[in-house]
Records
---
Amino acid sequence: MKTEFSITHHADSEGARFGMWLFLFTEILLFGGLFLLYSVYRSEHALNFHSASLELSRFFGTFNTVVLLTSSLTMALSIHFIRYGEQKKSMLFLILTILMGALFLINKYLEWSAKFEHGIYPGSHELVNRSRGEVLFYGLYFTMTGLHAFHVFAGILVLLVMLVLIKKQAITGDDYVKLENSGLYWHLVDIIWIFLFPLFYLIS
Amino acid sequence: MERKINMPTINTYLSVWITLLILTGITVLFSKINLGGMNLFVALLIAGGKGFLVALYFMHLGYERMVFRLMAGFVLITLAVIIGLTFFDTALR
């Protein structure tokens, strides 16, 4: 009986990754719907989108892009090291990834606060008096970057759990698909930002 | 276990990261030049290239079985069709 159990218990990491990819596809379609809204409204209100985009901070946008791209590198390295059983290095790079995710969110907080201070938030008096295109631009800006930031936050929580699992040796060089799948999620969130960045910050 | 041999090396990851940073720089520089409608096209082209690199190397899509790539392609085509058809709708209204 015992041998039979150990055979059936063999982990199917490829199946696990396949399942993760299926989930990521639903995420792509979720954001895809918002990108669709963006592109249609942009084509109808091109000038307003351009003028509204001028008000966003290019510095914050570019800096956050660099932060997320680098966090993707450290994430990949964390998985690379666990594959070779180097637990300490894997944890180090995972912590760096989490810290960069946190830095991204701090920047996002500062950026949004600056907008709020200028009276720009959904339904604000300042915004309602502007042109329809600008209202739509900011509506999409807050919805899409907000949903994205929520994904970064969720990613950080997942990575924190992975950190504990590596520490407890529940993730090792022989079985690291949990860390791999968390990495897949993190990279997808990075890819979504790669598209959000030029669409909102660089169209002026 | 057989995946171990074919996975990207640290040097590959670093090269991809540097390429991504360079592409980000190019996007920012290009956005300052007025190319009219071409600006958006160039920005999306570079973003697509960056996404492709992340998927291929960081997400190991280039190292998975063909079925993973086929499915990802299917999803992207579906999205393109949805966006394309919507534009037919709004443009011809």
---
Amino acid sequence: MKRFSEQLKKKASTISLSAAERRELRERLVAYMEYHPVSRRAEVFESTPTTAPVMDTYRTVSFSFRSLHLRAVAGLCVVCVVVGVPLVAERSLPGDVLYPVKVRFNEEVLSTLTFSPYEKIEWETERLGRRIAEARLLESEGKLTEEFEVEVAEAVKAHSDAAQREIETLRATDAEEAALAEITFSSVLDVQSMVLKSRDRGASSTIDVIAGAVEKERTEAAAAQGQSETTPSIERLLARIEQETTRAYELLETVKSYAREQENIDIERRLADIERKIASALTLRQEADTDEQAVRGLLREALQATQKLIVFMTDIDVRETIVVEDLVPVELTEAERTAVLETMLNEIQEQRTEFETAVPEVENDDVRAKIVASLNELNTQFAGAEQALEQSDLVAAEVATTEAYNLYQDIISMLQLHAGFIPVDPEFTTEPPTASSTNQVVVETATSSATTTLVGDEEASGIEQGTTSPERQSESGEDQAEE
Amino acid sequence: MAASGKTGDIGEGQHDRFLKAFDEYADALFRHAAMRISDRERAVDLVHDTFTKVWGYVRAGHEIESFRPFLYKVLNNLIIDEYRRRRETSLDVLMGLEGVDEGSFEDLHENNTEALAATIDGRRAFELLDTLPDMYREVIVLRFVDGLGPREISELVEESENVISVRIHRGLALLRKHIESEAAAREERRIMKQNKSEGTKNTK
């Protein structure tokens, strides 16, 4: 057996990581470890000695020296106060006795633990999010007084200013990193502002001052970002996107077990959209005479979308207040865009033949002339849209189709008014079909290249956010089969 | 393998120990993965995933006394997931084959396994390892390449030591059968080629 084992081992030893593979793997791992450091809580746990030795010492000493026993008890009390109070304070809200401990002690101590300017910016951003979350919690409990509201608005401004100051400090040493920090800060403010704006504006809503403060900070951050002369390099953007998407996928794995199936599908769809955007940016980069700013723009959008998704997955309040579609709208693939256009054109085509019989019934000459002119223009735009679709020029096709659809709606309205025209589809609405809200485009193959169909409102109610679900596809297929 | 206790070095200590484990075991783990899944790039990814998962465990505050078995355990689970994902082999069917059968005396006896291994050419075995179902490849690689004992393998695979011994024996038997059939086929081809060349000479 030894010989067999030796021979097998010898042959197997030919399989090994090359030096480059090994180096790359190690670098990836080190980057991962830096991005996911040992949590402070774990370190606190770890640095705490196990109970057994403490108790042993305590017992030995207590029986021998009473005074030391008392000192140990006093020491334990001090430890309880020093460790316990800040822990309890973490759950406090404005107005609680321990709230100042949370804000002025716990958070300040944690501030001193952040060393790099980027970490400081992240921490200030998180503190800003904490203040808003506290305000929302107080509001939901009906305890948000004007005094607290002003206090939170001031805190929002203070944290935002601190983050901006850190960005400026960082800009002096690493302008690209500062630009990346600006993007992150801006993404978080976007989400918070959107959450506050979308809250119920009923009589009980008292969060207006905070919403205004956040919106002001968001606008200022966006303006500062627009004025910034430095944009991160493509490599730096790609590296940050890699980190953020890794985190997003990890978070998705974590939330998968308790999130609703539809939420998971929605998030997966957005992540796929982001991957597609990155791929298109990389393709664009390969092209000769490429516009580097356009590539950076696409990557920046991808980074912001990923960061927003991360906030969506990590902040339960955000998830309960807004839907992912508001935060990161679905981006249709070419196949889906084509499907939407084809559906719109089919609808126009279906009604167009009916128009010819309805137009002579219009008694008013002026109106009839106007309808005929609109009909001619509709035919021109329709032909243009079809031609653009054939040439796969989606942008031109979308412009022409939208124009044609508007004319088509005008004609129907005029015919309904002046000739009692009834559209072929009794459920005719003036809203064009889209794939983002009420109507969903279902692409029936994984490659998004084959047959596409539109699912109506009833079916779409099961699909909230413009995503393609295999289950829905099969249901849709069954429905069609039954029909 | 992994202690639930919270004692141990903190921060830097964990960091250094973990990287030391990477330096020490990355190659062995990669070799194991590559031999199991026959896909070099994927094997690199699986080794990466193994280390990131184990790091996740470390950063959650758990102390790992010995990295080697823990890393192998995580990698093994990832390889099983990979097989499930590929659906090349129905794992359940393979598992079902083993079931409660703990093997005959011949299968179980270590001396018989040694005797069987002694009859196999390790170099040919390496080339034909791919032809074995993963269930057998797994234990043969763990036993003869990674050098794990039956007890360690049984803990890793979560089967009894008897089942592992039977699996190793059957794997080796199957491997020898494959080597023999391959040798017979090669011999047949050689004879056919020889006959053909002799026929050509006679015609001339």
---
Amino acid sequence: MRLNKISLCMAYIIMSVSLAACSGINLQINPFGPADSLEQRAFAAYGAFVVAEEQAVILVRDKRIPVSVRKAIQQADRVAKPAADALLQAAVIYQRATVKSDGDLLQAIEAFGPKLQALLTAIRQSKPQAWLILPRPAHINQLIILIA
Amino acid sequence: MDVIFKMLPQILTLLQAATTQTNLHPAIPKWLGILATVLQQGEGAISALIALREQIETMRENDREPTEDEWRTLLQRSDLAHMAIQAEIIE
């Protein structure tokens, strides 16, 4: 009986620590959080895209994942890449300009946000547990809200 | 925090082994095992996201913007990954 109480306490502690760790992880690896300036936000968005693409390479090669899901990841990357590179180009032009005009860079981030979201969604379909690791929809929304 | 994060899969695996020996509900060691596996599988993405976050934190602390070199490095990684994804014949 005593052992059962100890076991229950231990289970409670383990679950609490695990849940706390998981919520901490989500906060910890949201790359958009520390970004302050427009250029830093653009860099965070492009950086998150690169990490997602690098994960996508592993996933499209994994034959255990259904063909339809792997094709969806490939298609999402095909759509997102030009928007990502347009964002990068806008950021570099912005950086080089002596007189800063936010318009083009803001527009590039806004155009890229949904495409990054679509790629992350496609990755989550292959690995539902990826919500623990990759930026969540709320993070992308945070990025868009920050620039609005 | 990053160190704890990186050690979490090992900690969870140890906890899983420890809880298997007890008379806890069998679902507890099972879920600890699943969580450990998920974290191990995503280790590459976790490290990359942490590195990116730290890079941006450093920029903010030093009140500077990303350099063209930093952009170029990301572009090269993206180009490589993009080519690998699109080269894959899925059928």
